[in-house]
């Protein structure tokens, strides 16, 4: 079965998790961790995405990425392929290095950015690593030590906490020291991401608020929300309405019936919009 086509949004925030094939310890050597980070930097400079946090454990890695114009799939394809080539050459082997497809969870930036950074930086603590937060292969120390970094976009995160850099670091340190219940984080934080970047399972829920989607769609198309429910042939309003239907069905729990009622459309019209492949392009570049 073909994989479901991804919808790319400029500014989308992803929590990416990469595991070694068969849970192999592909990062157990410091040299391999260094090569992986160097590869990430190479593609960060090429594709202009933002990296807010990382933690490279021995058999998996966590990345918190905000994409720009280039979709995550292309970014990760480059990173994974180059590392795989170097890893196999260095170890005289062939075949897969990573576990099939990486896992990527699209998250609500406004609500979960700081929580995800904390979750990622606390990985060594949960794994029982003696260095805990001082673990060398995470981005935590970049935040604490104010080290200039081409890899980690830490200044933006600190600016959220305070305009004063020293106060921001203090607040960050306090935030990171707060204990996260692992089960709560897994269920509440990770599953409150919008969608996983793979074929969704039936039990996965969609977590973007429909009103938020409507606001962003209207901002992109330059229309007022009340215009979406009016009878009109203006192309930008027609396109905005179609985009709202497509994105809402992809990323929220709203039903066809509810969309039809809100937009003053027949339910069959909503179904036709959703089934028309030509409409998919309308959703490709809206920034949520």
Description:
The structure is a single chain. This protein is an alpha+beta fold. The chain has two domains: 13-190, 2-Layer Sandwich (Alpha-Beta Plaits); 210-283, DnaA protein, C-terminal DNA-binding domain (Chromosomal Replication Initiator Protein Dnaa, Chain: A), CATH 1.10.1750.10. The chain is 48% helix and 9% strand. Strands 2-3-1-4 form a four-stranded antiparallel sheet, covered by helices on one side. The two termini are 29 Å apart. Mean pLDDT is 84; it is low at 187-206.
Gist of the model:
InterPro entries: DnaA_C, Transposase_17, Transposase_17_sf, Trp_repressor/repl_initiator. This protein has 288 residues and is of the alpha+beta class. 48% of the residues lie in helices and 9% in strands.
Helix count from the secondary structure assignment: 12
Mean pLDDT, as a whole number?
84
Overall radius of gyration: 21 Å
Q: Which range best describes the helical content: under 10%, 10-25%, 25-40%, 40-55%, 55-70% or over 70%?
A: 40-55%
